[in-house]
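CO-FOLDING WORKSHEET

Operator: S.A.
Ligand of interest: zinc ion
Run index: 484
Mode: holo prediction, single chain
Checklist:
[x] sequence pasted
[x] SMILES validated
[ ] output reviewed
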Amino acid sequence: VSGLLGWDEQVQMPPGAAELRSQQQQVLAGVLFEKETAPELGALLQKLAASPPEGVWEKAVVRDATRDYKRKTALTKELAQREARLSSEGYQAWVKARSSSDFSAFSPVLGEWLALVRERSAAIDPSQSAYNVSLDGFERGMTTSRLDEIFTEVRNGLIPLLAQVKASGTAPDASWLSGDWDVKKQAELCSAIAVEMGFDLNRGRLDVSVHPFTGGAGPSDVRMTTRFKAHDMTEGLTGAVHETGHALYEQGRPGGEVEGLPASSALSMGVHESQSLLWERCVALSRPFAEYLLPKLRATFPGQIPDDKTPEDLYRALNVVSTRSLIRVESDELSYPLHVILRYELETALLAGTISVEELPAAWNAKMKEYLGVEPENDAQGVLQDVHWSAGAIGYFPSYSLGAMMAVQLFDSARTDLPTLDADISAGRFAPLREWLRAKVHCKGSLLPTADELMVSATGSPLKPAIYLNFMRAKYSDIYALST
Ligand SMILES: [Zn+2]
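OUTPUT RECEIVED:
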């Protein structure tokens, strides 16, 4: 119900209803909190711990319910209230600080959040570091020692590749993709593509909102939204394919006897992102997809695509790397992980106390220069660009890049299992890939306890940065004609 209220708020609700909606959401949050932390539930879980069930799904349900209960009941009422207050204050302070590009207007709130996250983490699991506990809320089972291992390899592989692309690469011509693209036609085309990918309109809806998202009420009612801009057709298209990837995961999660139970939920933020990014980057930004897409663009926008353009030109134009990547959300797939790694390194250092809040802007700028070769001119373009820290979401950023890596590794396995994959994609036959993902990822819910274990079951090995780096090197060496 909360998911539907949230969807309605962003898609349909008249602005005057905002206050009433916030009251409705608060009442519902109260009901949920009472149920989730009810002593009766705790007693039942204790009974189950003493005599565990036999079946694999039942075991996973008890495991996840126990974990959720522990995380929820660890918070005192005082801590929960401080968290709610800081969330709203934090957002206001961030908006103000960003608009005046003044980090000092945000730093006190960030300091308070760090203290709160340390306190909350200690309450949930004092045997783990604060960052690990916080991270586990988004990416279960993931730890800083595993992340350090993964991100160091990725960082060391991507920095020289990005530098090489910028220094000696020949950028593809993407100028013909700029211009004015009818927004209504973009929306129609993208809905058609979402349906061809397998989005089931009998169990979902497609709408437009300011910030695209996928939500709703579970596998039988998935609400997906997109956004289109006249001057940027690529953003609308890749955004729509991205959200469809999320939506396919949602529609494919297990139903039947386990529907609605904890183990039927998505495994982690990173796994969710792997599904959107697999469709967005491995499919929609691929050569075979350009063959599928170009005739559709010609039919949808008559006369707007120059006659001499080929699918190869489209593929290259869609994969341009930005030469000045300051903003994470606007960056290309080659720069993106470096933005994430930078944030990961800074937030772990902040939480561990090895850098202070006051030192953060300078540390940010230094890493931007070292990793991406650019320096922000002000804090609005730098340390204040993301909303996440204002909501206390510390440990959230890694999921984005873990998702990108899982996507490549899953796609790599799918290609081995489906020898006609490229031909299928260029012909718009997406069912084989979708069904492969359904069997290997979607219908597993969170049966397996960590993303690494899901990767072992789907691809034969845990997350391997080398697979991702090889993909990126091969792709961009080719597009940018790098000498290897
Ligand atoms: Zn996403």
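REVIEW:
The mean pLDDT is 95.
The longest helix spans residues 144-168.
[x] output reviewed
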